[in-house]
Structure to design on (297 residues):
């Protein structure tokens, strides 16, 4: 169950004196649309589990893994009794590590790790989650450190095998038919698109356009658009807006800044466009978001 929910914002109750939490969800309990600052990883042990990330519906089968990035709106639904592993961890300090931050940006808003979609590293990823579960139960002096060490290993694994990512969610059967070509493109242009995403993340509040970023990457805008979606799972403009909204969320924690100031400082050119986009990603207005967050800060 969600223990502390204010509107759609969840405050996670971590294990005492730590910033991690592992629990095994049993039964048919549903979780309404919500978001939180910790990273979340979900793996059903048996029976299917429905995970909606933003507006994308995904069905996890037994053993499938969903890694949901911090701040992402999601809901969970179980059609029948089942058992699921759920892990939450505060990763803000880890984002000081550039490579960790880059991988988190690339898999945003979430990534599926499945035997079919990511056969190259699925077994290793699942073993890491099982190790996290064991370490968490140990209650030793270094248990939390061990859990974070394993989480870093998982991200190293994801980053090293990013060419085989399975986005959330696949757009169509046509996309699936082009997987072999897409995989080759990812391997060929992997580091280039890591650099592109890092550039967007650092300059998202500026006047970035598809033409400008495609030119910086050395592609036509049509070729760039296709490759960008293969790497990130979303279009260029959706990715850019996600980053601008993330920037706005941080600025909203400052009560001295007006919504209008935040609009322009986060890269939007009009208040109406900012509010509309904010509601799309967060299902609340910027003012409502500020009230929910400041209440718990």
């Amino acid at each position: 169950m969600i223990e502390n929910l204010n509107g759609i914002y969840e405050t996670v109750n971590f294990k005492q004196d730590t910033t991690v939490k592992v629990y095994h969800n049993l039964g048919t309990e549903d979780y309404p649309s919500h978001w939180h600052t910790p990273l979340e990883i979900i793996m059903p042990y048996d029976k299917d589990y429905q995970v909606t990330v933003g507006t994308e519906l995904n069905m996890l089968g037994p053993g499938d893994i969903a890694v949901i990035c911090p701040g992402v709106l999601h809901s969970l639904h179980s059609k029948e009794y089942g058992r699921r592993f759920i892990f939450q961890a505060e990763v803000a300090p880890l984002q000081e590590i550039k490579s960790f931050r880059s991988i988190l940006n690339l898999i945003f808003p979430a990534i599926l790790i499945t035997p079919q979609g990511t056969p190259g590293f699925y077994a290793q990823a699942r073993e890491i989650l099982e190790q996290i579960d064991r370490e968490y139960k140990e209650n030793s002096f270094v248990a939390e450190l061990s859990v974070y060490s394993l989480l870093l290993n998982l991200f190293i694994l994801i980053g090293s095998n990013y060419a085989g990512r399975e986005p959330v969610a696949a757009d169509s059967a046509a996309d699936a038919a082009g997987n072999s070509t897409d995989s080759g493109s990812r391997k060929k242009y992997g580091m280039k698109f890591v650099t592109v995403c890092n550039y967007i993340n650092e300059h998202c509040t500026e006047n970035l356009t598809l033409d400008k970023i495609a030119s910086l990457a050395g592609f036509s805008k049509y070729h760039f658009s296709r490759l960008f979606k293969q790497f990130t799972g979303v279009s260029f403009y959706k990715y850019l807006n996600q980053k601008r909204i993330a920037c706005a969320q941080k600025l909203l924690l400052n009560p001295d800044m007006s919504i209008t100031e935040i609009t322009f400082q986060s890269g939007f050119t009009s208040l109406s466009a900012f509010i509309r986009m904010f509601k799309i990603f967060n299902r609340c207005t910027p003012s409502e978001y500020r009230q929910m967050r400041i209440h718990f800060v």
Notes: The chain has eleven helices and twelve strands. The chain has a mean pLDDT of 87.
